[in-house]
């Protein structure tokens, strides 16, 4: 049988098969000068040698079998396009567990708040980011991890970790690997109390501080005035007003003022009496650092002046002036609108006489600036002023309520 196969084989393949079947070396095929063909022995596949684990100080966290390695939720992926960042005026807070024993040892976060930044390339949806900053106190210099992302420490033990926000409450699990391979964890929460306003933010909603602004306005004033030995007067007047603000450099100070005048009587209860007031305020403002955007608290101080044009001449008051002090609290929104209010106190004197606390003006008001994407925004205001005067044997009292509107350039 072997002879038949060797003589009639048409190629080396059949000869190899014959050798395998009968366990003997097969002859070379016709025309081949090679010697006997032997079949190499195929060794079994050996298991791969185990790979030595890296040093515990730099090794990645162990992954469960079959778990794909992926960036953790909230981690910021490398930018593929040129991205621009915009301050939103909003902030986030870090909340740690109530039990200090559950905290990672020596991890201290920087003082809050965490400023929220909007990031976009103009084509993709806007992303909102914060930078978590802190340090490891003491001698501990082990790096931290968020999922599989390493948070490296510098030589002073400080770290900066960018985090993408996607909800009002973002949970972040920080981990460290000890020398013995043990993994310790701490779950912290990043809270954004004004998340809906943050989501509504669009680039350009917060602009740089203007060097100056001018606001002409008009309003309707309800005025009542009473004076000793004279009949009282109630009237409705058309009031015109001009306000302005000048920023003093890039610091917290600004200079501002306004002038108002009851230009036109619209309605009054006495035809034999007439009273119109002209007033002016000049003040210096200081933005207190205790509140952060979107809130603002300013303390203003300056000079107040008021006088009247009345008929008859014995009616009204002339040249009332004095210092003034008032705080202004306001809040900005993502659509560039602003809501605020103020209170004011001013001890005054008539005809430039000595000041007396029996003569004073107490005032307060609310204002709202409408959001605007371009052009000059409009504003509404509601102001109330109560002026009491006592000079010589004469006492007088004026109450004014004004609803006004203005355009802000």
Give a topology summary.
Layout (H helix, E strand, L loop, with lengths): L1 H7 L3 H11 L61 E12 L11 E3 L4 E7 L6 E10 L7 E3 L2 E3 L6 E8 L3 E9 L5 E9 L3 H5 L12 E16 L5 E15 L5 E16 L5 E14 L7 E17 L8 E13 L5 E10 L1 E2 L9 E10 L8 E14 L2 E14 L2
Written overview of the protein:
The protein is mostly beta strands and 409 residues long. It has three domains: 1-32, no CATH class; 84-199, Immunoglobulin-like, CATH 2.60.40; 212-407, Lipocalin (Beta Barrel). It has three helices and 20 strands. The protein has helices at 2-8, 12-22, 195-199; strands spanning 84-95, 107-109, 114-120, 127-136, 144-146, 149-151, 158-165, 169-177, 183-191, 212-227, 233-247, 253-268, 274-287, 295-311, 320-332, 338-347, 349-350, 360-369, 378-391, 394-407. A ten-stranded antiparallel barrel has the order 10-11-12-13-14-15-16-18-19-20. Strands 1, 2, 3, 4, 5, 6, 7, 8 and 9 form a nine-stranded antiparallel β-sheet that branches. β10 (212-227) and β11 (233-247) form a beta hairpin. The N and C termini lie far apart (110 Å).
What structural keywords apply?
10-stranded antiparallel beta barrel; mainly beta; Immunoglobulin-like; elongated; about 400 residues; 3 helices; disordered N terminus
Summarize the structure.
This protein is mostly beta strands. Helix content is 6%, strand content 50%.
Give start-end ranges of low-pLDDT stretches. 1-71
The CATH class of the largest domain: Mainly Beta
**What's the tally of helices?**
3
Helix content: under 10%
Q: What is the CA–CA distance across the termini?
A: 110 Å
- In the CATH hierarchy, the third-tier topology of the largest domain is known as Lipocalin
SSE pattern, N- to C-terminal: HHEEEEEEEEEHEEEEEEEEEEE
Number of separate structural domains: 3
Q: Could you report the average pLDDT, rounded to the nearest whole number?
A: 78
Widest sheet: strand ordering: 10-11-12-13-14-15-16-18-19-20
Going by CATH, the homologous superfamily of the largest domain would be OPCA outer membrane adhesin/invasin
The major pleated sheet works out as: 10 strands, antiparallel, barrel
What share of residues are in beta strands? over 45%
